Amino acid sequence: MAIGAAAAAAAVVALATWYVVDTVREVDQDLDHRIARKVPCTEGMRFAGLDGLPPGARDSRCRMLSGIDTLYDVRFRIPRTDLTAWLERTYPHTKLTADACLQHKADACAQFSPAPASGAKAHVIDLNVTYESGNSARVRFAPFTT
Length: 146
Description:
The chain is of the alpha+beta class and 146 residues long. Helix content is 36%, strand content 29%. It folds into two domains: 1-35; 38-144, no CATH class. It has helices at 2-35, 41-47, 80-90; strands spanning 37-38, 58-66, 70-79, 108-112, 124-131, 136-144. The longest helix is centred in the first third of the chain and has 34 residues, at 2-35. The model is unreliable at 9-31 (pLDDT under 50).
């Protein structure tokens, strides 16, 4: 009888734990959607001290998350050659490497601070690039405060 009661108690604890974890996950997902808001991509790029998306960028979508810190999530596709030219012109000392992709599933990444003279409000910029078939690259450009 003691074994049956112990198994029943363990089942109740497991079920209660699953319920709490599942509920917290749903609340977190809902909260992310409520805090994040769609913004014009020029807003996100200006936060990084830039006038707008790089030449050749397409399929852009942008969000802003704010709380204690501010994060812009700017995503777009761009031909690889246009991306390379833009990076060389805009961030000449930035090198994309696979080693910098510690937290992101991407082919090449970099994290850097914008130039002080740029007027950027962002303290840091995360740049993640995933190479697609052909000459296309999918870019996540994320300026944020710390």
